TrEMBL record:
Residues 2-157 form the 6-phosphogluconate dehydrogenase NADP-binding domain. Keywords: NAD, Oxidoreductase. GO terms for biological process: organic acid catabolic process. The active site is at K170. Belongs to the HIBADH-related family. SUPFAM superfamilies: 6-phosphogluconate dehydrogenase C-terminal domain-like, NAD(P)-binding Rossmann-fold domains. It comes from Mycolicibacterium iranicum (Mycobacterium iranicum). This is 3-hydroxyisobutyrate dehydrogenase-like beta-hydroxyacid dehydrogenase. GO terms for molecular function: NAD binding; NADP binding; oxidoreductase activity. Residues 165-281 form the 3-hydroxyisobutyrate dehydrogenase-like NAD-binding domain. InterPro entries: 3-OH-isobutyrate_DH-rel_CS, 6-PGluconate_DH-like_C_sf, 6PGD_dom2, 6PGDH_NADP-bd, HIBADH-like_NADP-bd, HIBADH-related, HIBADH-related_NP60_sf, NAD(P)-bd_dom_sf.
């Protein structure tokens, strides 16, 4: 498959590398050319523009937020006008439900396919090809994309024929992760101030009631105060929780815990934690209880 790949950040670099390893032809574009050069050494074709990356059967975008995605889709040389008719844009970015809905309409009007395929997993999972793909779009198109999804992930969940459903599922999952980080951090602050070793406490939790990858991964970061470099920066976590709340408002679903987590992430921003891993959200409780400031 000839695949354009736009966005070679913490997640995109590993995903694009695994597409190459699976035998796909990859046309790579990134605003920072150094990332492209590193991938070109592994066999990718360096695309000098978004339009050049669209000379493909499929173009994948893996970008930070709505604004970044819109900037490569719209305007002169954007995906909307450069992708060949009948080709597919796969958006793996964590974007708003509203933008996904708008992109689906834009692509349909111009004779292109649009599939939302956000992923669950941190950069190390992206490098290992162990992501979980949440895909939504025309079932026949999603089925044709399975070799692409198999190259980047360990399992694909096709959740709907409506692309925006995949984005809602992804946002809901990130909300659950953020809620878990906050509650686990509070629990660790409580037992830690009483003298219980945080790593031993985590081992107890993950060996009994909470033997889940999220508890093991984020609990380990909390136990080690390991927030730099960020696998997923706190300001991006705040963005996602805000998008969850926007979706809840649109659907008239109250999300009181999401409101609390948003405020806690704003507290982390105010404390200088914008670029820390969002696991640092869980360190706020210990700081407020007299411990060190997150990231200090």
């Amino acid at each position: 498959m000839r695949i354009g790949f736009i966005g070679l950040g913490n997640m995109g670099s590993g995903m694009a590398a695994n597409l190459l390893a699976a035998g796909h032809e990859v046309l790579a574009y990134n605003r920072s050319p150094g990332r492209v050069a590193a991938l070109a050494e592994r066999g990718a074709v360096a695309a000098e523009s978004v339009a050049a990356a669209c000379d493909a059967d499929v173009v994948v975008t893996m970008l930070a937020d709505d604004a970044a995605v819109e900037s490569v889709v719209s305007g002169d040389g954007g995906i909307a006008e450069s992708l060949p008719p009948g080709a597919t844009h796969v958006s793996s970015s964590t974007i708003s439900v509203t933008l996904a809905e708008r992109l689906a309409a834009t692509h349909a009007e111009s004779g292109r396919h649009f599939v939302s395929a956000p992923v669950f997993g941190r950069p190390e999972a992206a490098e290992a090809g162990k992501l979980f793909v949440v895909a939504a779009g025309d079932p026949a198109v999603v089925a044709d994309l399975q070799p692409l999804f198999d190259a980047i992930g360990q399992r694909t969940f096709a959740v709907s024929a409506d692309p925006k459903a995949a984005n809602l599922v992804k946002l809901s999952g990130n909300f659950l992760i953020a809620s878990m980080i906050e509650s686990l951090g509070e629990a660790m602050a409580l037992v830690g101030k009483a003298g219980v070793d945080k790593q031993e406490y985590l081992d107890l939790l993950t060996s009994t009631l909470f033997a889940a990858p999220a508890y093991k991964t984020y609990g380990g970061l909390l136990a080690r105060d390991d927030f730099e470099p960020a696998g997923f920066a706190a300001h991006l976590g705040l963005k996602d929780v805000r998008l969850v709340l926007a979706a809840g408002e649109q659907l008239e679903v109250p999300l009181p815990v999401a409101s609390l987590v948003r405020d806690r992430l704003i507290t982390l921003m105010a404390a200088g934690g914008r670029d820390l891993d969002w696991a640092a959200l869980g360190a706020l409780a210990a700081w407020e209880a007299g411990g060190p400031k997150p990231g200090s």
